Structure formats: C-alpha cells, structure tokens
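User: two proteins, same treatment. go.

Assistant:
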Amino acid sequence: MTASILGPGAPALAFDVGGTDMKAALVDAEGTVLGTRRLPTPRDGERTADRVVEAVARLAEEFAAEYPSVAPAAAGLLVPGHVDAAAGVGVLSENLGWREYPFRERATAALGMPVGFDHDVRAAGEAEYLLGAASRYRDVLVVTIGTGIAAAVFIDGRIHAGDGRVGEIGHAPVADGPACACGGRGCLEAVASAAAIARRYAAGTGQPVRGAREVLARAQTGDGVALAVWESALDALALSFAHVVALLSPEALVIGGGLSEAGEELLEPLRRRLDARLTFHRRPVLVKARIGEDAGIIGAALKARAVAPIREQAGTR
C-alpha cells in the first residue's frame, strides 16, 4: 500500500503501457495506490494491442481478487505513440507495432466500466503539472526520456495537444545518424533515449548492458565507448532542447522517465551544453520530475476519475 498525492476521489484502475514495461495499480477512494504491478509490455507483432488489452483485463481480475472491498468506478489507460485521445484510438506506435487500434472501445468492453484514454507522456505530464515539479510554471515542457522521448507541452497554463502529435521531439532529427523505428534517420530518440544509449553501447562493444545507467557508470570509470555514447546523447538532447527554447521560450524543462533517475549526473552536464547553445534566449530551469516513475500511474488514475460517474467522482459509494 503506497501513500498517494491524488487525494480523495473515485476508486480507479490505472494502466500505463510503455515501450518496455507496463504498470498497473488500483487506487482507492482515499487516493491510496494499492498493489502496483510492473510487467514486460506484451509483444506479438500485429496482435500486440490485443495482448495489451488482454493483460489489462487479467490485471483487473487480479486486483478484484486481492482487494475485494475496493470496487473501481472507471479505468485509465495510457499508451505510447501517436494517440487520438478524443477518438480513443492508438493511431500508430512504431515501437510496438499497432495502427488505428480502438483501445478505449476494446478496454471498455473487456473491463465493463468507463475508460479514460490518452497518450502516456501527455497524461504523465499532466500529473506532473498538476501535482509535481511542473506545477509552479505556466510555460513548461515535461520531457520523458525512456524507451523513446516525448514531451507534454504546456503553454500559458494549458496543455497543447494539437492533433495528438505535439511534443514528439524524439522524432526531430539531430544528425544524419542511426535509423529510427519511425523510418527516419538521426532522430533524437535513436541517439539519446535510454534504450538507444544501451543499444549503441552494445553495438560498439559487443557487450550487452542492462540499461543506460550502466553505460553512464562505465563512462565514469573511463570506458571510452561508454563516454562517447553518453556525451553524444547529451549533445543531441541539448540541441533539441535549444530548438524547443527558441520556439517556445519555456520557463522550465522538467525531465522524467527512466533516464531522469540519473539525477544531476544527467542534468548538470545537460544544463551546461544547453546554456552554451543559447544567446539572447530565456534560460529555462532544468529540473528532475518529482512524481518520477509513478507519473504514468497517477496520470492514468486522473484520466479514470475524469470519466467516472458523477457520484463516484465525489468519492461516495
């Protein structure tokens, strides 16, 4: 049982599907997060989206058996890629392989309750904006660096989603570099995502690593390949962030996702590189996300509560 920053509201199921792992939790009427689960995101080619919905239904059954006194009124489901939240559709995921999949419709049928559906980074960013490190700013990006890279964009205190593709900075080109899953070359996330850092090190040495944090640790002990991979990732991030600053002039960039767990070992050299690329521009504050790895679960719970029946939204039974 985990204390939550959510506060009272409708009991809810929360599902955060990422490119590598998916997380799930049950949130009670007091906002306490119960029974958090983490498991590999199921992959089955063109059937991956079906497998995700099946996993969601299975996890809901597990929560019902483990916590019979907590009856969720709604569920929140977040997925990566290009998302049409209004239509409830996962339009495209390059990393997971679905196209035009009706997630909200299928999850609603599988769970038998209303489902709030959205993009994983956008919803996690909203949680960070409402309840975390981004809450003190009106013009801010919450950037998630994990399997991929994307941002939730807030302008004058409102999230800017556009057609669902706003914030896909991971697919902005930074160099004529590695091929990306989107079909392009030199995309930011092909160079600087946590997955890319680990993949590039393994390709350069023939030595698989557990993740980007291990590459950083090796760089700090003098491994030349690790240092080159890490520094090229920092350079690419700084270049993309400089473009963001020139275009949007944000007060802050809040960094979340798995790579943010490196803390100041990531942020301090990134600040220096970004500062070196700016002239007359506003210097945004670079800070680590406060909610961190739970932001997706909190964001999914907020989406669920938003679609729960009115009586349940007040936390009454």
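Protein 2:
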Amino acid sequence: MKACGEVKALQEAKTVHEHLIGSFSPLKISIYNRILETYLKCGSTDDAFDVFEKMPRRNLTSWDTMITGLARNGLGEDALDLFSQFKQAGLKPDAKMFLGVFYSCGVVGDINEGMLHFSLMSSDYGIVPSMEHYVGVVDMLGSTGNLDEALEFIEKMPFEASADVWETLMNLCRTHGHLELGDRCAELVKQLDPSRLNEQSKAGLIPLKESDLKKNEKKKLASQSPLEVRSRVNEYRAGDTSHPANDRIYALLRRLKEHMKEAGYVPETRFVLHDIDQESKEEALLAHSERLALANGLLTSPARGQIRIIKNLRVCGDCHAAFKIMSKIVGREIIMRDAKRFHHFSEGLCSCRDFW
C-alpha cells in the first residue's frame, strides 16, 4: 500500500486493499490507517471516507490522517467538520492534529478560525507550539495572501524563527508575486542555512550558477511530472523533447494555448526566469513538465477520463491558471499532486480555491 501511495497508483491500491480484506480478518488498525493514507495520497477521498466509516475502531492516527489528508485534497470544510466530530466525541487532539487543522483553515481561507485554534491548543489542551506549528500558521496566513500578517506573526515569535519558517514565507511570496519580501526572506534563509541555496534558487528568488551545484544535486532541481496512464507511470522533465510523441505533444499544447487565449488566458511570463523575448517565454511555459504530462495524458487516455499527475516541485502560478482553463476546454478532471498539496481541476476551477 505504501508503494501505491508514493506513486499515486489508485487502481493498484484498490487491488491490494481487496487482497487484504480477503486474506486477513479482522485487519489491524495500523493496516486500516495505511489504507486511509494511501487513498488520500492517491486523491481518492471517496474511498478514504468509505474506509474510515467502516473501520471497527479508530485511533488518534486515524483521525489525524483523515483531517490532514482531506485538507491536502482541498476539502478543508470536511476536514474541519471531522475535527469538530472528534472533539464532540470527547477525544483530545494531539500536537500533530493541529498541523492538519491549520492547513484546513488555510484551504478554506479562514485565518481567524486558524488563529483561534492556535491560541486554544495551549490554553485548552496544554500543547506548547513547536517550530513546526509556527511554520503551519505562517503557511496558513501566507497561502491566503496575508503575507504582511505572516511576517508580523514571525516577528512576534517567542524564539528565533528557523530557516523552515522563512523558507515557507519565501515560497509563498513567490506564489503571490511579492518579490521584495521574498528576497528578504531568501537572504535570511541563506544566513540561517546556506545549504538551502539550491532550494531558494529553485523558487526563483536567488540566481543560481552552474558552479554552485554539486553534480549529484543537479537532478534534484529538474522539474519532473510523472503521469499515470492505464496503470503505467510515465515521467516527464521540463523542456524535454525526447518523448516518442514529442511533435504531437507540443502541437496539442500550442492548439490549447490558442483556445485558452480565446477564453481570456494571459500567459504569466514572470514565471520564466530567463532573459528572453515575450514569445520565447510563452514557448518556455509550454515546456513545463506538468504541461507535457497533461498533453500526453490527453493523447493516450480514454476520452473524458480522469488524468492524474504528480509534480515534484510546487506548481507555478501560470500552469495553475492554465490547468483551470484547460480542464474546462477539454472537459476533463485533472488531479495534480505538487510538492505542497493536491489540486483537483474541473470545469475551470481548482479545489484549492487559488490558495496554495
């Protein structure tokens, strides 16, 4: 099950689940929790809900897994409802559960409720916030666009903020186009942990020279997007032109771009860091790994079928906007798991509500 979850192989996960049910009775609660985690990692919240409801017993890990997993799939309201049910049952949350609660509040855009839970975790439950909790709150504030509030929150922390805190805010500044504050955060990350230079450069906030990279680190910076088609996982890299269907893939992307422009799409070329002309920047956006994966998925998967993509980095703002429009144009549901969360694109909308 763990392997299925890592590569988001939903059909294989269902097969393993059926085998476990048929071979072992009753299942241990730890196995149920692994099944829950796998379905949520695969983006199948319906299957996760079904397993959760049928579990003969649940422990704290069961609730933790569901709350965080639902939020990462864009179902923040369901996650918060589940947290309310948990408390109404007289159960006591642990420190880990509050991380899922903060994430859920960020998904629904309710920072007031999130800050209330941050206060209650110590006053009502005696949990002292750790650095990880502060990272979670900064992520909640920043993902909803409240970057100044996130900075103020950091400045009021009772101890020095870690590189994780500043890197979280730095990445959110990149997402929301607040590059001046992002540069300040990047410098602080560099001071606290110089080894994170590559991660900062990957976010586009500090220029990266070839000489700054070790040979074994170069692969880490490449944007990759595996695509699941008929239970096979295919991998794509940004700018790759080696795929056997390369000509068809790029031709489809160019046709889609024209349809998108007719629908009001304007390429956000600020996400292309190279010093090239506008037309070349638009062409570079087409070569992002998730777009290559999507195009081949459209060419090789059944009509109207769901397309699943995994991205090893956070999706850029332009691809996010493009995927929303493309989901409506092609009439497909597109599920993408990036480094931050799940994005369910359908009918021109994303489950993240543009908070990521």
